[in-house]
Amino acid sequence: MFNFQVILTLAVFGFVFFCVISEKLDRMKAAFFGGALLLVFGVSSLHEAWTEYIDFETIGLLTGMMLIAGVIGQTGLFQFVALRAVKLTKGRFGLLLIALSVVTALFSAFLDNVTTILLLAPVGIFAADALHRRPYLLLMAMGLSANIGGAATLIGDPPNMLIGSAAGLSFGQFMSNMGPMAIIALIVTLAYVFFTNRAELKPTGDTITTDSFDEKKYLKDRPTLYLSLGVLGLVIVGFMVLPDLGITTAEISLAGGALLLLINKGEPEKLLHLVEWPLIFFFLGLFVITGTLEKVGLIEVVGRFFASLTDNPFLLSVILLWLGTFGAALLSAVPFVAVMIPIVSAAIAHLGLDPATAEPLWWALALGACIGGNGSLVGSAANLTLAGISQRTREPLTYGKFLRLGLPTVIVVQVFSTAYIYLRYFAFA
Amino acid sequence: MPSRLVEKFMTTELITCHRGDKLRDVAALFAAKPIGAVPVVKKDNRLCGIISKIDLLGFFLPEYLELFSNIDFIQDFSTLQSCNLDVLDSNLLLATDVMSYEPPTITLDTPLLKCAALMQKKGVELLCVIDEENHLLGVISSTDIARAFFGKYLG
């Protein structure tokens, strides 16, 4: 079976993953080049790529949501809400940490995690500064919360979009299956942060006046804000009702994004910068590579291996959960999930599981990948963004620093996830 | 029409500092004279950098403010811990801590319009005039250039 096509596909796959891990070359450049190489050597054709490999459901959903998040981001809403939270907690640092974490989780559940961090983290640094505290813990808690919030919904995090589209799981299904566990994860994570940093977060009783800033100044363009929130609301309602009529989530989010483009007065050129094109192109390359891996039969081999491990769906879920956790922490969640999806599909087909019995496997993979992203600095794009922002503080986040708090919280949370999967899908099923 | 060259309009009475100078002494230069920037030179008068007034004022402010698209919401900056008006009191801060390396430079025969273009492009108010060996010969400010071009409108 090791003919030229298989070897080339493996080499391209290895090259892209080497680039993702080592960061020697940008991952988008590597994946896009790798995909093009497979096409030019005829291992796959552009026609196959376009019609079979590239998951336009994910690409469309991602593009639409990026436009919506981008427009809402420009209105100052994120900063307004976060500053209001700072004011309401009246300078109590522990309370502020909880408030900003919850705000971050909520925003990132419905909007892009990177946008959320990009807009909220500076407010965290500002608040810590105004309260004469070091921003490190606050930033860490916000970063961890962004990934947890993203895990809660279909649109919260790209791995969920990939899984939802591949397994045909709806927005409502994500909310009801991932939502409760995300809430548990947020509580457990914050509890862990508080427990391990009790000295720093102990209430001191002293409060500091926060009247010296006026968060309303951030809302410059209220008409755009109300319109874009209205569109986001419509899109979310659409996610819940329209799929029954045969309209996909990608179509709904693209329609929402298109509507915002239509009513926005900004320059077309600038508006299109709201779309994170590097991620879209990374996906295009990655889809061609995973599609080709499947075509040459490599995915089938690994899938059969998975199926041979156990035919017990619970054990398989646990394996996927923890594999996803460490895969995401070590490799970053998106490429890991993109490869795992066809493997899991192959394993499911091999074991002959029906869609309902197979569902917990997908939730396990999603929980593993989204929350596992908290395990290391490179685990998710939001973490890397956070690290970039923290360069402007006296205490920048480093790989080691992130790992020391991130990895233990992830392990504790995933123990709860394991229990959640067992209790919800197996013990009482 | 005579060609407008840097040579005719530049300032040769130079206010400069050295890399090892204390920042507080550099700050004193700005307090004494209405200048926008101070070139940093080596002992042999070769140019090695420049310190602008705005860069020095930025020293009082926290770096993270750059991340905000607008700062109107902060009414009283003095409540921020990182705003430190005494930061320049320190003897440890030197010219090298704030100077920009490789500032835009020109030569004696650079046309004035090119200077104006450079200033606009790089967002600076002062250009250093150097010879082939990087010796500082003078400086030309946006005020000098304005005098050259707008002088004809004088009463």
Structural description of this entry:
The complex is a heterodimer of chains A (429) and B (155). Chain A is mainly α and 429 residues long. Chain A is 77% helix and 0% strand. In chain A, α8 (136-151) runs antiparallel to α19 (355-372). Chain A is globular. With 155 residues, chain B is an alpha/beta fold. The interface between A and B is medium-sized, with 23 and 17 residues.
Brief summary:
The complex is a heterodimer of chains A (429) and B (155). Chain A is 77% helix and 0% strand.
Tally of helical segments of chain B = 5
Radius of gyration of chain B: 18 Å
Order of helices and strands of chain B: HEHEEHEEHEEH
Low-confidence stretches of chain B: none
Unreliable spans of chain A: none
The total of beta strands of chain B comes to 7
Key traits:
heterodimer, A: 429 residues, mainly alpha, 21 helices, 77% helix, 0% strand, B: 155 residues, alpha/beta, CBS-domain, four-stranded mixed β-sheet, three-stranded mixed β-sheet, 7 strands, 26% helix, globular
SSE arrangement:
The complex is a heterodimer of chains A (429) and B (155).
Chain A: H1 4-22, H2 27-40, H3 46-53, H4 56-74, H5 77-88, H6 93-110, H7 113-130, H8 136-151, H9 158-167, H10 171-196, H11 198-201, H12 222-241, H13 249-263, H14 268-272, H15 277-295, H16 298-309, H17 313-331, H18 333-351, H19 355-372, H20 381-390, H21 399-427
Chain B: H1 6-9, E1 17-18, H2 23-32, E2 37-41, E3 47-52, H3 53-58, E4 100-101, E5 105-106, H4 112-122, E6 126-130, E7 136-141, H5 142-150
